[in-house]
Amino acid sequence: MSSWLLLALLAAPPDASGIQWIHDDWAAAEKRAKAEKKGIAVDVWATWCHTCLSMKSTILTQAPLAAVKDQLVWLALDYDLPKNAAFFDKYPVGAFPTFMVIDGASGAVNGRWMGSGTPAEMAAFFGASAKGGIKALEASQRALAKQDYAEALKLSELALKAEGLDAATQTRLLLGWIEALSHINPKLCATQGAGRIRDVDRSAQGIDFVAVVADCANALSPAEKKPVLTQVRDQLAAVLADPKLEVSADDRSGAYATLTDAQESLGDTAGANASRVARLAILEAAAKAAKSPVERSAYDDHRNQLYQALGRYADAEAMLMASEKDLPKDFNPPWRLANVYLKQKKLEPGLLAIDRALARGYGGRKLRLYTTKIDLLLEGKRIKEAAATLAAARAELKTLPASVVRPYWVEELEGRAKKVEAESATPKG
After folding, report:
1. What is the pTM (predicted TM-score) of this model?
2. 180 pLDDT exceeds 80?
3. Domain residues for 46?
């Protein structure tokens, strides 16, 4: 775990789960698991992942997890640390957070959970996976863990034909099915997924299913997209209006984000604005009630997006400055602050902020920090400095294991490279 986050979490309220985590040491976890004849529960997280921080601060610390704490060895892996690349070479991940339960003897994945859940849901997942996994899910989840999407799709479809599936298991199977289909054929993911939206329950996993369908809808033509997004809108509106909904503030915010995008695509500007206001109210209340700076910072990303969308730049700046003060080793607040300044064309404060972020950044995520600095320099027509920053980013990339670098971070950087090259080739004067 990053030293700043470890210190911040140690300063947080007591952990009612009683779980003793091993941080960023796969070899130590394997050794202990074999000695104790247990499986390994793995939390794959990142400092910039708001849901990861929410899970760490508000879910995995809760009392229901105490019932399963002695059944497993517990390992937390920061995705951005190059030292963890050996794990990700063997067990690739496609989303954050991802939780796995790995058999301590064979190394097989007995359980995989992508995204968030309630304390009771996570306790049930870890408990079942410690015993070998839920049979209806086990094979398809192993295929997903290997990123064998064709096999995962086939196994998910087979498992979904079983009779007597409970709502939670069916929802998790459908989430695996739609995840696999999104990689194989986004258009089918959208159209077939829309047809199964009402088959998922009103949980974080169900909300994630709808979000994947909405994302896949971007592959459709405007005429094809409309009925899919109508289904998305109607389902999420019903979920968010449910007084019995038991999901975190972070998950409610995510549901509102997908709902807002659907409303805007459908031409409902008033509805989208109302959703933004409702979403921000949830996030601000959660931030105010947070028991630690880390818990509060879990809401920074979504609050920042909303403040900017509503033109409330001063509020975004104040929030991020407060987080940087409370978490002085975290690169995320000054990086986000630099982007707020960029949006307002406040280039000098933006460059100061991004340089603070770069001084603290590490791993593949640092590429996105370099991209922000290039944007600031290009906006200021400082082309030579932008070219030098691009060169530094490319040099950093060469030092990083491929398994801890998301492909779109590289694509983002190379997109800026084209802009730098175009500006460099433009005659001056």
Report:
1. 0.92
2. yes
3. 1-133
